[in-house]
């Protein structure tokens, strides 16, 4: 089981094989307490900035152990790819947090010189199994993973534009499975594009949400991403796609190329 939330958190269901088999026959109960909390949900280094911090909080009643890793984040053939980073590290890499407490973890660039183009990473914070909670757990044990986007930009930005420029963004729908569509979005610009609140808009004003009201996904600078969407292919002529981009308050139409229909 995998549930991805708009703040980057991923809940992983982890169970021993024996328990899983028993649960299929005996009505296994779900044991889960949302102990691990991590903030902020996104980091951005600008210019020569070298270090930032995340806070790992324990909202539970037992001591919490977590592992913190930094992964280089790229996108290939329309999918995310993570590899261990060598130029950005987390310190400490293993944390133990008492109930009701929090601990700071520093995310550090090894070389703080400004970059010539935007770089992207993800900080993975994984809850580790604890002995006390394991002894009390009956059934399925759910652990948490936070996946926090990190960007290193060439220079500090004086102010964010009121509306994201989409002139370097191109999108198209291609045929998927079961008569549905796959949305392909290409970002030819120098900075990432974050897409949220994706929806269809009919000519009569009727809207339909695609993927919930939160984060839909990122398209990194110079990359392309693909997602299956619950839209019939080909797209009806009276439908368009809208979304919020980056931190914009208002939605914009997605620049959709219909010539390939």
TrEMBL record:
Segments forming domain Pili assembly chaperone N-terminal: 36-156
The organism's place on the tree of life at top rank: Bacteria
Protein name, UniProt field: Molecular chaperone
